[in-house]
Design brief:
By secondary structure, the chain is of the alpha+beta class. It has one domain: Structural Genomics Hypothetical 15.5 Kd Protein In mrcA-pckA Intergenic Region, Chain A. The chain is built from 2 helices and 6 strands, in the order ββααββββ. It has a 4-stranded antiparallel β-sheet with strand order 1-6-3-4, with no helix packed on it. A two-stranded antiparallel sheet has the order 2-5.
Length: 65
Amino acid sequence: MTKIKNLKTKQDIAKFVAENRLAISCSEARRMIVCGKIKVNGKVVDDISHQLNNGDEVEVSTKKR
């Protein structure tokens, strides 16, 4: 789980996941979001346009379904 600190503005979730090496690219991060493999504050995110806020906790599941 990755907790977001010092985020000054809202940030796109796919870009955040890719930049923090939780996915290999933004495209891969978007696929993971659509498949329900990313949670923010304990809730599954299925909207690729979701914006992260300072203090959000991001969890990425790597389990195959």
